[in-house]
Structure formats: C-alpha cells, structure tokens
Design goal:
The complex is a heterodimer. Chain A has one domain (3-83): Non-ribosomal Peptide Synthetase Peptidyl Carrier Protein, Chain A, CATH 1.10.1200.10. Chain A is 63% helix and 0% strand. Chain A is built from four helices and no strands. Chain A has helices at residues 3-19, 40-54, 60-65, 69-83. Chain A is globular and about 35 Å long. By secondary structure, chain B is of the alpha/beta class. Chain B folds into three domains: 4-219, Rossmann fold (3-Layer(aba) Sandwich); 226-391, Rossmann fold (3-Layer(aba) Sandwich), CATH 3.40.50; 408-583, Gcn5-related N-acetyltransferase (GNAT) (Aminopeptidase), CATH 3.40.630.30. Chain B is globular. The chains are: A mainly alpha, B alpha/beta. The A-B interface holds A 17-18, 20, 40-41, 43-45, 47-49, 57-60, 63-64 and B 4-5, 8-9, 12, 32-33, 189-192, 194-196, 198, 201-203.
Chain lengths: 84, 586
C-alpha cells in the first residue's frame, strides 16, 4: 500500500468514529456533499481528530482550502514530511 | 475526563427515563458544540437537559425584548456566555483614555441583563466568567497598569463575583479556573476559533460542560453531603496498627506533607458543612489515638461525625453510618486507597460515589480538585454546626447498643418533652412538618402557614406541638397533633404527625397520654381517629390498633373512661399557656 492508501484507510476510520456512521467509505474524490453529517461544524471535529491522530497541526487556512478527501491526504503527507 | 466525541454519542441515547430540565443558552460566539456537550454530559449524570440555543450573538435582543423566544421558552436555567475574545474586541475599539474605566460599563451591562431576565422569568442564571487573555502590550507591567486589558479583565471577574454574590438564583460558571487548570493552549484553539468562531476547544468542552452541569445538579438538590474516609494510607501514611503512632507519616516531612494538606482540605469541607465520617479496618482505640494525641494531625475527634473502626466489612459499616446520618447513599463519597475495599463498596452499594484515588498520595488532592464533588448553590454560617448534631445522634445509637433491655435504654435517655399550642414561634415549623412528613402521618393533610394560623385561632380545634430533648441534645419540635371537636362527647384526631427521627422512643405513648388527659379533663367520652393510607405511610397502618383503639367502619375510637396512661419514659414540661388546656372548662 502507498502512503496515500494507508492514510486514506486511517482517516476513513476517523470519519466513521467522529460521524458515528459505519457505512462511510471514503475515496480521494469524496467531498462533503457525499457524506451525511459532514458539515462545517463536524469538519472542525474531523480536523481536530486527524491532527491528533497524525500528531500534526494545520493552519486555519488549510482547513478551509480542501475541496475533497484527496487534497486532505495530500496535506497530511506534506505536513508529515516537513515534520520529519 | 470523558471526551467530547463520547458526549456527542450520548445524544443518540434514550433520555426518556431522566428528569427533564429546560436550559436556554445565550452566547456571543458559536455555541453549537457547547450545547451538544452540555446535553451529552447531562446524560452522564442522569438529567435530560432540553436546550434551546439562541441564534448567534442574540444575548441583548433575547433578554431585553419581552416577547423574545427566550421568554416564550420559559427555561428553568439560562446560561449566558460572553466570551473574553469579544470583550477584547470591544476593548480594542475603546478610546485609549476610556480604557481605564472599560469594565465599569461592562459590569453594569451584565448586571442590567441579569436584572431584566430575573424580573421577567423565574429562570435560574448561570454566567461564565472570563478566561484570561493577556495581550502583553505592557508586558508584566500590565498587572499594574489600570488601562491594560488584563487589568480590566481581572477587575471584571472580581466585580462579577461581588455583584452576583449579592443575588439569588444566579451563579458563576468558573471557566477561568478551567483554563488555568488545562492551560490556555489546550483551552483555546486558534483554528477552531478562526473557522467556527468557537472559543472553547473540543478538548476543553467536556470540562466546561461538567462545570455547567455541576451547578445545575447542585441547584436540583443532587448534592454530596458526606465524605467517608479510610485511615491507613488515606488520611496518613503507614499503618497505625503495625507502625504505631510515632511512625505514621503526617506533618511537614516527605510524604507526610501530602497527608497534612489532604487533612486540611477535609477540615475545610467539614467547616463548610460536609459531614466527615471514618470507616476503617482497625481496633477502635488504636485508630482513634492519632486524632487524640498526634501533634501533627489536623483532624481531631470533634471533626468526625461518626467514627467506625472495627473488622467488619466496609459495606456493612457504611450502611451503619448511613443509618445514623439518615441521608441517601447517593449523597455520600467514600475515599479509600485500597482498590479491593473500593470495589467491595461499589459492588454492594452502587449509589455511593467511590472515586478511583490515584496510587500516589501526593496526587490525591489534585485529583479530587478536578472531580469537583462538593458543588453547592448555598452556604450559611449554621452549615458548619452540622457535625455536632450528627455526633449526638451517633452517641445515641452507640449507647442503645449497650443496653439489652429497651426500657433501661429509654430511661437512660432522660427525655423531656415540651407540650405547647401553636404560636408565632412554631407555626413555620408546624407547617413545614405537615408538608414534608410522609411516613409517620396518619391522614397526610398538608397545611400552609396561614391554615395553621387559622386553626390556632379557631375554637373548634385543639392543636398540640411536642418537642423532645434528651441528655444528648435537643431534637426540636418533632410532633404535631390537631384535634377537632365533633360534639360535646367526641374529639377527633384530624392530624397526627411525627418526625421519623424520634421513632422508637415511646413518643407515641406520650402523645396519646397527653391527648387523653386533655379529653378526659374536658369531659369528652371518646377520642376518634382515622388512618388514611398513602404510598408512603404504611409505617402507621396499625398505629391506632397498637394503641388500643377499636375500629368501626374505618373510624378508630378509644374511650376516656378507664384509660390508663401508657408506659413511657418521657417527662412532661408544660408550656405555661398550655396548662390552661387542662384547667379550663368546655
């Protein structure tokens, strides 16, 4: 599995937990329109959970900039690199 | 602390079985998560908190407009959350020369909001204080610069405390302390603020929710009244039975310091009115020795309401303590360093609160501070006297165990009862007794103070009150009888109430002797009474039967002719005016 695939799997788990919905299956193309309960409020909760899980911190602007899950993963990979 | 995610999951659970409370939340920032956290935390303590959240930044219009949704909702509680960030924005827009007086206006504004709210509805109010933001414009010098923001903010917190302490039904949620405990970096998250305009981080929300729900619980009467303590390694280091009084750790050296500070905390709770009891596996004399003669002990025998040291199991001992104190298990806290004892108590008495004390005694206090077990919404100077009353009751119970013969025990109590009619001094207590007594209450008629006043002035009624005093202390006014004249021959017992505190002392015999003496001296032939069953007064089902009354069609009667005084060990102490009852003619 590539880094991106591993991260996708891990954030899928986070989405299931935070949104309390076992049926969620994320792809890189998934947007907030595709998932019930993923609104601007739960987005904050998701971001905090992802930050905690990957031990990194996004800027306020990054958090607003993603248009789909793929971009979110990209940001995680970039952050992890600079962190190392 | 429970996590926010868990609180949110609680929202899907069944709240139906819990008591419903209506809460209104008014904030100047986004409060959606706070709303979820408070409702979710309510589930943890068994409250169904229905929350109506006002639209963003509607504090003024909701409170100042009498037709607002707030007033239509008519909440039991209103939470007002004015954030430090919005305060800072206001400050930033204040002219430099006005900044020294900045919070005077804010304090007035808040005071006005609360007054308006309280004059419109009966809602209790919770307002958060201001968590500190230091903009460091003056560096440390801001602490002595009146016009600096931190100077103003701290002053506002102080003014809030002073103003609200003078009000009734209004409380402060101390989120400033929560930020101090967690640290600002945890309490406040810049990205959550920028993206959602929320000023409390997801991590801090459960703490803020707990502080809010703690206040609601206390105002609902869900309070802790008693703390039960183990001794060895809980109140002092070491084992008194093995190490001896010289070797236990208490005082200023090493770990002894932790136990000394812990004892000071317990002492302050006792002074506040929390009942302190001891429950220890020890030989009683050895366990008491440090309290009597160790120079470094903070707690002394007079601080302890009930002292139980023996080799029985702790659950039984706690039940014994509960019998003496006569308070619910859910109002008790049990502290013990031994996980085994904690589990036994939890398993046998699920209602009692048994905190999971940390292994290291130096962590006890910090851990207990965070639990905030002893929330309250009132305090009076008399609260501190409570220990004495319970010590007296404990002496009585212990003394009873010494007598094998009930009569010897009763005689040893040297009981005296004062019999009096209703008067201006006892009317409030009589009304209170009629409203609160459920068990020893033959007819369960509830009287208001004005009802009692009317009865005391009526010629048709003959009221009696009884106090009970014994060698251990005064129980106060504990029984009320209201007799009604049916005709020249019959006197009917409309009400007979007694406090359960004085059961099994022969008080009912004393009361009946008093009634019969009155009846025969006033030439009545018969005294009658009824037992009207309720869900709670089964205790007195056979009351009249046991006293020798005869039943016919639900009415019990006893003839005055041939009545022989029933045995009792209570001496009479007639109130002067009451003597007339026995002298006068019909």
């Amino acid at each position: 599995m590539t880094d991106a695939e591993i991260i996708l799997k891990e954030i899928n788990e986070i989405f299931i937990d935070v949104l309390d919905n076992d049926a969620i299956v994320l792809t890189t193309e998934t947007t907030s329109d595709d998932i019930e309960d993923w609104d601007s409020l739960t987005h904050i909760q998701l971001v905090v959970a992802i930050e905690k899980h990957f031990k990194l911190k996004f800027t306020a602007q990054e958090i607003r900039s993603w248009s789909n899950v793929g971009e979110m993963i990209e940001a995680i990979i970039n952050k992890s690199k600079t962190a190392i | 602390m429970i996590e926010f995610l868990q609180l949110k999951k609680n929202l899907k659970k069944d709240f139906g079985k819990y008591k419903q409370i209506k809460l209104s939340i008014l904030g100047d920032s986004a409060t959606q998560f706070l709303t979820q956290a408070v409702r979710g935390y309510g589930y943890e303590v068994g409250l169904n908190i229905e929350i109506r959240e006002s639209d963003y930044n509607q504090i003024d219009s909701q409170i100042l407009n009498p037709g607002s949704e707030l007033y239509q909702y008519n909440p039991d509680y209103t939470l007002i959350y004015i954030s430090s960030h919005k305060l800072l924005q206001l400050y930033n827009n204040t002219k430099v020369e006005e900044r020294s007086m900045f919070v005077m206006k804010q304090a007035d504004y808040i005071d006005n909001l609360i007054s308006t709210l309280q004059s419109n509805i009966f809602s209790k109010i919770i307002i958060y204080n201001f968590n500190e933001i230091n903009d460091y414009v003056f560096g440390n010098y801001s602490t002595i610069t009146e016009s600096s923001f931190i100077f103003q903010l701290r002053r506002l917190n102080m003014m809030l405390m002073e103003n609200i302490s003078k009000r009734k039904g209004c409380y402060i949620g101390d989120i400033s302390s929560i930020q101090n405990n967690l640290g600002k970096k945890t309490f406040f998250s810049t990205s959550t603020y920028i993206n959602a305009d929320m000023l409390i981080s997801i991590e801090a929300l459960p703490f803020v929710a707990k502080c809010t729900v703690d206040i609601i619980c206390a105002a609902q009467g869900m309070l802790k009244k008693c703390i039960i303590l183990d001794l060895d390694n809980t109140l002092w280091g070491g084992i008194i039975g093995d190490d001896g009084i010289e070797k236990i750790q208490i005082g200023h050296l090493g770990i002894g310091k932790a136990f000394t500070e812990f004892q000071h905390w317990i002492k302050k709770l006792k002074e506040r009115g929390i009942i302190v009891a001891i429950c220890s596996k020890n030989t009683e004399e050895i366990a008491k020795e440090p309290f009597i003669s160790h120079p470094d002990m903070v707690l002394r025998m007079e601080d302890i309401a009930v002292f139980v040291a023996n080799w029985n199991n702790k659950a039984d001992n706690i039940r014994y303590i509960q019998r003496i104190l006569n308070i619910g298990f859910d109002s008790m806290v049990f502290l013990d360093d031994n996980p085994f004892e904690r589990n036994i108590v939890r398993a046998n008495i699920p209602e009692i609160c048994v905190p999971e004390l940390p292994e290291d005694p130096s962590d006890y206090l910090e851990y207990l501070y965070e639990l905030n077990l002893f929330e309250t919404v009132s305090h009076s100077a008399e609260d501190g006297e409570r220990t004495k009353q319970y010590q007296v009751e404990a002496q009585r119970v212990q003394n009873r165990d010494k007598f094998t013969n009930e009569d010897d025990y009763l005689a040893s109590l040297e009981m005296v009862s004062q019999v009096a009619p209703f008067n201006q001094y006892n009317i409030p207590r009589v009304a209170q007794l009629s409203q609160r007594s459920n068990q020893f209450n033959l007819t369960t008629i509830r009287y208001s103070e004005s009802d009692i006043e009317k009865i005391s002035q009526s010629r048709e009624y003959v009221p009696f009150t009884f106090t009970l005093d014994d060698k251990y202390g005064d129980n106060g006014l504990i029984a009320v009888v209201i007799l009604k004249t049916v005709n020249t021959d019959e006197l009917y017992i409309e009400t007979w109430i007694m406090s359960c505190r004085v059961l099994k002392r022969g008080m009912e015999n004393f009361v009946l002797n008093t009634i019969m003496a009155y009846a025969s001296s006033h030439k009545y032939k018969v005294v009658t009474g009824k037992y009207i069953p309720t869900a709670k007064n089964g205790l007195v089902k056979d009351h009249y039967k046991e006293l020798g009354f005869v039943e016919k069609d639900g009415l019990w009667s006893l003839e005055t002719k041939n009545y022989i005084n029933r045995k009792c060990y209570i001496n009479q102490n007639y109130y002067d005016r009451c003597r007339n009852y026995f002298k006068g003619n019909k």
